[in-house]
């Protein structure tokens, strides 16, 4: 397991874009945002009332792209 980053560490920022299948057509945009934030950043909580609570995001593998934005130090 890697050590947490700290101020002054050298880092590279990459922008990753991907398409995710939303498995339930009943969710609101806010519920979808909460669900993605919960699963992709692994932070926060997801309400039990969210219709996506029991679902995992399914990434379309052929949709993943990335760009290296910049290199520098964590400030």
Describe the fold and architecture:
The protein is α+β, with helices and mostly antiparallel strands and 75 residues long. 16% of the residues lie in helices and 28% in strands. The strands form two sheets. A two-stranded antiparallel ribbon has the order 1-4. The longest helix is centred in the middle third of the chain and has 12 residues, at 29-40. The chain is extended, with a radius of gyration of 16 Å.
Q: Overall pLDDT, averaged?
A: 89
Provide the structure class. alpha+beta
N-to-C SSE string, H for helix and E for strand: EEHEE
Q: Main beta sheet, described?
A: 2 strands, antiparallel
Strand order of the largest sheet: 1-4
Q: Helix proportion of residues, in percent?
A: 10-25%
- Please state roughly what percent of the residues sit in beta strands, choosing from under 5%, 5-15%, 15-25%, 25-35%, 35-45% or over 45%: 25-35%
Poorly predicted parts: none
Radius of gyration: 16 Å
The overall strand count is 4
The gross shape turns out to be: extended
Distance between the termini: 23 Å
How many helical elements?
Answer: 1
Helix and strand topology:
Elements: E1 10-17, E2 20-21, H1 29-40, E3 58-59, E4 65-73
Antiparallel strand pairs: 1-4, 2-3
What can be said about this structure in brief?
With 75 residues, this protein is of the alpha+beta class. The protein has one helix and four strands.
